[in-house]
Amino acid sequence: MKKIWMSSFLLTAVVLYLCGNPDDSKNLPERHKKWLEEEVVYIITDLEREVFRKLESDRERDRFIEAFWKQRDPTPGSPENEFKIEHYRRINHANHFFGRTTPMAGWRTDRGEIYIILGEPNDITRFEGKTQVYNTEVWFYQGMTKYGLPPGFNMIFFQEGGTGEYKLYSPLQHGPQALMTSYFGDHANYLAAYQHLMELEPELAEVSLSLIPGERNLALDRPTMSSDILIQRVFTMPSREIKERYAQKFLELKDVIEVEYSANYIDCDAVVEILEDPSGMYFVHYAIEPERLSVNQFENKFYTTLKLNGTITNMEGKQIHQFEKDVNLNFTEEQMREISRRPLSLRDMFPLIPGNYKMSILVKNVVSKEFTSIERELLIPGVRDELQMTSFIMGYAVERETMAPDRLRPFQIGTNQLHFQANRTFIMQDTLVLAFQIHGLRPAQVEGGELKYNFLKNGETVRTVTKTILEYPERPNYVEQFSLLDFSPAHYRVELSLVIDGQEVLYETDEFDVTHQAAIARPWVYSKLMPAGENPVYSYIVGTQLYNSGKVEEAKTYIEEAYRKQPDSAEYALNLAKLYLISEEYTKIEPLLLPLFEKPDPPLYDVFIVLGRTYQALGELSKAVELFNSAIDHYGINTNVLNAAGECYFQLGEIEKALTAWERSLEINPDQPELKKSVDAIKEKKND
């Protein structure tokens, strides 16, 4: 009886899980409430329901509903959404046929729910108009193994008491005794009830003990839990089939991405690794593999543009680094045939200063208006001599990199270029490559240190390999290879331990799959060669990150280095001048910025402002006014330049010109209370 109660509780919990709290959507508009509580109640996931309830406007809800159906569209490129059409057909069918014997709508009935989830049965056997058994329907389904269901199974509904709604039958909860109109035996004796039903309706008796054909066990005088587990899997099938991550992305990015993208989230796999460059700089390497790539076609050419936007913020939410990149892809017909069978892997890298960060990268396909994104937390070590081991990259091949030493490539570790797939899936013929770095090893630790590789399947060790640190001559870079021929198709975990003097001091772990397939479509990679770590672009990026972190003096050192290596860069000169302005090193600014006025095109707006502020600080007010006016001539007016010019005029004693500049600034932005107070005071004094 305890098992029967547990089964009943399980079914009740599943129904509550699917239906949710009836008060959840009480504040929704009627059409959205109907959509949530009636139209998709059996197929929406818990996360999707939660996200939908958090949306704040009808526009957001409509966009979410569009995204909801697109995630379930079996043919995204076609004009029709076959899943949506079939779903509403099932609802209409349920309402038409299953609500006749009950006051409730057909979609609310047990038969309606199963029909909406599973669709049309392959066969229906009815036991109706019998005097000794209640009206019963046995629905048989097959061909649903891809959903984790048995090759064939039954769903049984019976009309308890002979009237009203047909209930979903559970062999364990109800038993054969519940199907008979008159049964006076022991209701806890399933075997006796089954034997009695065999005398009345043998065909019904055969399915009364298990919903799975051929599975019948009365060794314990009652059915097994397998039928209730099957019912549970049917109820949760719609939730298992959808990649619900899109819903969370919709909520997180609804205010960031354009409307035309918001309903078109596609999933992706990703790898993010932090590796130290020989220059001592840490680089973040990332690979993003969207689940599909949509392109446009013109004649025999195929093309699209992917826009990448990345932001790195510290744990207080302050932006430390930001980048935007366009990836223009163009293919011939032959190239398109080749890559259409393989996933795309976008790979890149950038330097990052020590600290804890949150990284977000948004990828938008301009042609299809689809988007995907990744988020990661990053830790860049701050102590150089501290013992530390990076997580490892899992690859299926590695090759020696022979390119020029002044170039870098994403996911190159030392002289080794890793070939990998972000989903960590391998075939038995593959070689598993593990690549990582260990920093901070002292000479004595190198002499006595070991690396222990432990492979596990279902928690049991299947292989252990131990290597000494001295066996890796390219330290701090470590690359190890393992044949997978003895790894049967399964899910595996690999554990890596650094052992020194018999003690485990560092540990990393990851998981991978070995598939039964004979071959896997490996990704085609889009990445660009990068300059070596000594290139001034990295000094400039690091300097900018330090400035954004509030470390002005450190930032100045790096940007000075970048400018020294590339003095013809207007960008480096301008940003170094800004740092000198902050630190009040005014005499260093003019030599940086004056050469920019010698070029045919006018300098950037900020060049006028920084140099003008410099002259203002040095008391050379006429020069400052001249630069501010030149900025207006070239780039138009704004409050900043008008206020600066007004300050200079006021200091020069040209009060009318100062008032003219400030009053115009107030016309553009009246919300400047301090400036308005100054202007009113000057006018009042003039009137006196």
Task: Give a quick rundown of the structure.
Helices cover 36% and strands 27% of the residues. By secondary structure, it is an alpha+beta fold. It has three domains: 2-241, no CATH class; 266-531, Immunoglobulin-like (Sandwich), CATH 2.60.40; 568-687, Serine Threonine Protein Phosphatase 5, Tetratricopeptide repeat (Alpha Horseshoe), CATH 1.25.40.10.
Give an overview in words:
This protein is α+β, with helices and mostly antiparallel strands and 688 residues long. The strands form 7 sheets. Strands 7, 8, 9, 11 and 12 form a 5-stranded antiparallel β-sheet that branches. A 5-stranded mixed β-sheet has the order 19-25-24-21-22. Helix 3 packs parallel to helix 10, helix 19 packs antiparallel against helix 20 and helix 20 runs antiparallel to helix 21. The radius of gyration is 35 Å and the shape is globular.
The CATH class designation of the largest domain is Mainly Beta
- The CATH topology of the largest domain is what? Immunoglobulin-like
The percent range for helix content is 25-40%
What percent strand? 25-35%
| Alpha-carbon Rg, integer | 35 Å
